[in-house]
Write a structure and sequence with these properties.
The structure is a homodimer of 337-residue chains. Chain A has 337 residues and is an alpha/beta fold. In chain A, 41% of the residues lie in helices and 15% in strands. Chain A has a seven-stranded mixed β-sheet, sandwiched between helices.
Amino acid sequence: MKTIRFIAAAALLVLGGTAQAQTDPLPSWNDGAAKKAIVAFVNATTTPTSPTFVPPAERIATFDQDGTLWVEHPMYSQVMYILESVPALVKAKPELAKVAPYSTVLEILKGDRAAIAKLTLPDLEKLAMATLTGMSVDTFSAEAQRWLAAAKDPRWKKPYTELTYLPMQEVLKYLRANGYKTFIVTGGGQDFVRTYSERVYGIPPEQVVGSAVGTTYGYDKAGKPFLTKEPKLLVNDNNGGKPEAIHLMIGRRPHIAFGNSPGDQQMLEYTKAGDGARLSLLVLHDDAKREYAYGPAQKLPDTKVGAFPQALYDKAKKDGWIVISMKDDWKRVFAFE
Amino acid sequence: MKTIRFIAAAALLVLGGTAQAQTDPLPSWNDGAAKKAIVAFVNATTTPTSPTFVPPAERIATFDQDGTLWVEHPMYSQVMYILESVPALVKAKPELAKVAPYSTVLEILKGDRAAIAKLTLPDLEKLAMATLTGMSVDTFSAEAQRWLAAAKDPRWKKPYTELTYLPMQEVLKYLRANGYKTFIVTGGGQDFVRTYSERVYGIPPEQVVGSAVGTTYGYDKAGKPFLTKEPKLLVNDNNGGKPEAIHLMIGRRPHIAFGNSPGDQQMLEYTKAGDGARLSLLVLHDDAKREYAYGPAQKLPDTKVGAFPQALYDKAKKDGWIVISMKDDWKRVFAFE
């Protein structure tokens, strides 16, 4: 019995190995430095005879989401969710209709897109707490899913969840096929991203690390327990908060990490500072035709959403991080192209 | 090619299935209600034709650690670590030698075990912050591992990490073999448990949810980044804090959960309140001969460490939770027996 099983397993391994060697795991990537670096990293960390071999249990890959795995322009999807949740909030509490920032949001939604510039960061935080907390985690999850099913990006007229980058989807699959556990590490809301991460990226909720508010355990009138989302930020998953959250939620240093803006810098530093083979990568949005072009690095237009400053570009070059040029490195950007 | 691969895969499946059916997955359990309930739960949630079938991605199992997976008497292992870390602390800051609670700990370590009763909960919290924070996460991890390699339980004269319950190790393996992802959800320190969870339980660090302090990202003089453990509790993973931490760190409700004391009650309630097949279980320490006997449930002796009150026992019986009698349900307690 054991012999038959062994032969079957060996046959599978051999055939599996052959099949893999014959297929390009990253067909949407042009043959450039970025693709080469990713493939070399995977070989260096998964070939058993490699001096920088990493045991499967320690293969951790982390990905920022907005601007790294999917489109973040003209505005982060979750901010659109927050803004578009305001009318329901105002319906429940009509006195808010004349109070800023709620009144400003109502103007924006009526078509005055320029009014969006009036919103300050404290405004956005106030709106976020008002629309993302104060309900049970199940209610929030249902509302977010309902919105995601109906909402459409203004340029492509497609659900936001279809605006993921095909080359990055290939990297996720390629790393997983090589024993890597893939994690999202996003400044966005953990509960929001978890509603679609499995369907959209093949990443289960427990592998989504994001900004998170605290919850409180309680009981309804029938004695059934539930968790309420509280207006208190517990994890701010940006900048230094990214390695801190990685330690809290994963407990291991990543071997490879992807980002696209200064909020990812510390995660990429932390990754690169580990021993053995480590790879840090940044997506540069330099493709106005197929997606968007913004920097201000490399004289690309400046932006308030997901900026990539020249200082970050210079640091990447100095420290051996890979800058992925959307224009030059990606053969295709979206699956629907 | 595809046909050969398919035949090989089919052969593996058939042989694998036969092998599993022939072997008792829980050989250290007596054939009683507890074993029956666990096996029935696994069959009900993993048989594709079962009305309560659970897709593999949603199979989450959570385990308290102290008193559920390993021995917690006469004192939690991590409290021993905290106490035994005090001499090094006093060596670095000699002025602490005459200040309570440090002076009390020095008395205890000199052999005055009765002095342990003098330590209050605020004392323990103070000692915990003094010995578990203020260093880098890597330094803490190295110190904890050094202690665990040398420290011995006073009764069995074995490393604490050998004092895990064999029947529970079998449950962990049995659930994993059936597609469950196993998590530790402990009131103990997350960073402490993560240093040995993989080796001892086959549970990787990212599947350990515990009480956790915040960390701060910074740089050493050479510019190398590191994380410092701060004396600020971020996650208190006890009572209502358990389902709250499960939501934060896992994001799904468990289908099966194990505990042994009131700190686990809310996790077991939360688990049981989900739809479909859910199982909540409590370990009752009623075996003074092979381990310890403490309640005060069922007229067992009372204790300050891991008490199991009668009210919890009554709630378990009322709500259909399973109480595991160490004496009656476990054929063997330890692997070294």
